[in-house]
Automatic annotation (TrEMBL), chain A:
Cofactors: Mg(2+); Zn(2+)
Ranges annotated as spanning the membrane: none
Entry protein name: Nicotinamide-nucleotide adenylyltransferase
GO molecular function: ATP binding; nicotinamide-nucleotide adenylyltransferase activity; nicotinate-nucleotide adenylyltransferase activity
Catalyzed reactions: nicotinate beta-D-ribonucleotide + ATP + H(+) = deamido-NAD(+) + diphosphate; beta-nicotinamide D-ribonucleotide + ATP + H(+) = diphosphate + NAD(+)
EC number: 2.7.7.1, 2.7.7.18
Automatic annotation (TrEMBL), chain B:
Record GO terms (molecular function): ATP binding; nicotinamide-nucleotide adenylyltransferase activity; nicotinate-nucleotide adenylyltransferase activity
Phylogenetic placement of the source organism: Eukaryota, Metazoa, Chordata, Craniata, Vertebrata
E.C. code: 2.7.7.1, 2.7.7.18
Cofactors required: Mg(2+); Zn(2+)
This protein's name: Nicotinamide-nucleotide adenylyltransferase
Keywords associated with the record: ATP-binding, Magnesium, NAD, Nucleotide-binding, Nucleotidyltransferase, Nucleus, Phosphoprotein, Pyridine nucleotide biosynthesis, Transferase, Zinc
Predominant localisation class: nucleus
Listed Pfam families: CTP_transf_like (PF01467)
Reaction catalysed by this enzyme: nicotinate beta-D-ribonucleotide + ATP + H(+) = deamido-NAD(+) + diphosphate; beta-nicotinamide D-ribonucleotide + ATP + H(+) = diphosphate + NAD(+)
Record flagged with keyword Chloroplast: no
Organism of derivation: Poecilia formosa (Amazon molly)
Subcellular compartments: Nucleus
Cytidyltransferase-like domain segment(s): 12-226
GO biological process: NAD+ biosynthetic process
Length: 265, 278
């Protein structure tokens, strides 16, 4: 029995506008990778769609994005959708979302550690290490740390030091380079897990929305149930893509008066 | 939607489907969108025809499994079907023969529907084939009614036309001349360049439809088999029902990948025998 494995939960933040097979692949790839290090046991996955307050162009209402993610994940026995972030009144910093979920997971752990006899609890043995929560993301996410005003220095530090990242490479983007180019990431590189996705699959939610606008098929790129939902609710049109056009992303506004990351790290 | 001025098209994909993946299925969707977008065609059906075991490709598992997985994968499709005729033949069947078989079936159905004298029809077809074999310039006349059958493939198949002893030149000419090709580009490779460099393909270039897949989707069956051998997840690369089937039957191991490792691929065997026997 791998008794020293750290129980691990993976959290993915993002627009999920809409959720795609590629998003769900991230979880599968990350789980396989973390298991193969011998140090972790992935016990859960969380999809946390961003709130409407994010202000990103083309973002459809959170209630739809949540419903679609739920439909897509119906067949998964370890990944779930969480609505907390989408329900907050304002856009929530990623680190704040992580603190919330980590707190929740630790509480569950403490409660189950109190009930030694219940073998079905995911944190069964009171002697097993504390569960960890890591942020699951694509390589483009790592590069976003460089964008002025998008992240606070302290937050990036907390994200990699206290929690950790599991980053799945995408296309030609090299996450190793992003780690190399950031002193913060480099300093905590042992907590940044890079997963190689050998299958080049550039299907993104942006491409899906584009295909939908043009009445082209997206079958086999996103689950059938999600396609049905999109047609039923007539989501993703030229109009929906223009939502928030000209509006700045919320993080840029909210964090405008805070010390921002300088470009030369 | 059927428009009386559009030609009806059926798409036929031949291949190992070892196993079928979301990429294979995407190919059909992309091809249909592309053809219908021209305003000239109406795609009425898609056929997946898995190759027979006699093809002897390395790692090729039993046809019965491959056909069943394709059936599971297309359950949710309104227009794509699976045909097991090719897989049931005891010898490997050339692609051109598979196409001919399906085309004849299609026409027979159309003719039955239209109550046309089928005897006259088969006589006409026999004459056409004789002309073709004797090398006379044939313009491959198509019956006035009846759907067109086009071979659907990736750019790798198009480029495989250049591999010695894999295809007969007459077959290539027939496939592009009489039927038509819909070629979906995978990442890398330039089908237009390849078409340009081949006189046969260039002659029938109007019958070759190149579909650009702008978004790279490289889910190859080879990759899927490799992931399975290593105990990695293939969820979301294949339809759910196929993932379950693979698990239930424990398909694709290091052992299954060694099947036919020391055997020559059927077309090479067949065509090199033919050339040595003069």
């Amino acid at each position: 029995m791998a008794s020293c494995r750290v129980p691990l939960v993976l959290l993915a933040c993002g627009s999920f506008n809409p959720i795609t097979n590629q998003h769900m692949r991230l979880f599968e790839l990350a789980r396989d990778h973390m298991h193969s290090t011998g140090r972790f046991e992935v016990v859960g996955g969380i999809v946390s769609p961003v709130s409407d307050g994010y202000g990103k162009q083309g973002l459809v209402p959170a209630k739809h994005r949540i419903s679609m993610a739920k439909l897509a994940l119906q067949s998964s026995n370890w990944v779930t959708v969480d609505e907390w972030e989408s329900q907050q009144p304002d856009w929530t910093e990623t680190v704040v979302t992580m603190r919330y979920h980590h707190g929740r997971i630790l509480k569950e752990y403490e409660q189950s550690a109190g009930r030694h006899s219940d073998a079905s609890e995911k944190f069964a043995s009171p002697s097993s290490p504390f569960p960890q929560l890591k942020l699951l993301c694509g390589a483009d996410f790592l590069s976003s740390f460089k964008i002025p005003g998008l992240w606070l220095d302290d937050h990036v530090e907390e994200l990699v030091q206290r929690f950790g990242l599991v980053c799945v490479s995408r296309g030609s983007l090299q996450p190793e380079r992003a780690v190399h180019e950031s002193d913060t990431l480099f300093r905590h590189r042992r907590n940044v897990f890079l997963v190689r996705e050998w299958v080049r699959n550039e299907t993104s939610a942006t491409e899906i929305r584009r295909a939908l606008r043009r009445d082209q098929s997206v079958k086999y790129l996103i689950p059938d149930s999600v396609i049905e939902y999109i047609h039923q609710h007539e989501l993703y049109t030229e109009d929906s893509e223009r939502r928030n056009e000209g509006t700045a992303l919320r993080p840029l506004i909210k964090q405008a008066h805070q010390p921002i990351k300088s470009l030369d790290d | 939607m059927e428009n009386p001025t559009t030609s009806k098209v059926v798409l036929l994909a031949c291949g190992s489907f070892n196993p079928i993946t979301n990429m294979h299925l995407r190919m059909f969707e992309l091809a249909r969108d592309h053809l219908e977008d021209t305003g000239q065609y109406s795609v009425i059906k898609g056929i997946i025809s898995p190759v027979g075991d006699a093809y002897k490709k390395k790692g090729l598992i039993e046809a019965s499994h491959r056909v069943e997985m394709a059936r599971l994968a297309t359950e949710s499709s309104e227009w794509i079907t699976v045909d097991s005729w090719e897989s049931q033949q005891s010898d490997w069947v050339e692609t051109s023969k598979v196409i001919r078989h399906h085309y004849e079936e299609l026409l027979a159905r159309e003719h039955n529907r239209d109550d046309v004298d089928t005897i006259k029809y088969t006589k006409k077809r026999r004459i056409e084939r004789v002309q073709f074999i004797t090398g006379k310039e044939v313009s491959f006349p198509k019956p006035k009614h009846g759907p067109q059958l086009m071979l659907l493939c990736g750019a790798d198949v198009l480029e495989s036309f250049g591999i010695p002893n894999l295809w007969k030149q007459e077959d290539i000419a027939e496939i592009v001349g009489r039927y038509g090709l819909v070629c979906v580009t995978r990442s890398g490779g330039d089908p237009h360049k390849f078409i340009n460099q081949s006189d046969d393909l260039w002659k029938y270039r109007k019958n070759i439809h190149v579909v650009h897949e702008w978004v790279t989707n490289d889910i190859s069956a080879t990759h899927v088999r490799r992931a399975l051998r290593r105990g990695r997840s293939v969820r979301y690369l294949l339809p759910e029902s196929v993932v379950r089937y693979v698990q239930e039957h424990s398909l694709y191991s290091a052992e299954s990948e060694q099947k036919n490792a020391d055997v020559v691929l059927a077309p090479f065997q067949k065509y090199s025998d033919a050339s040595t026997s003069g």
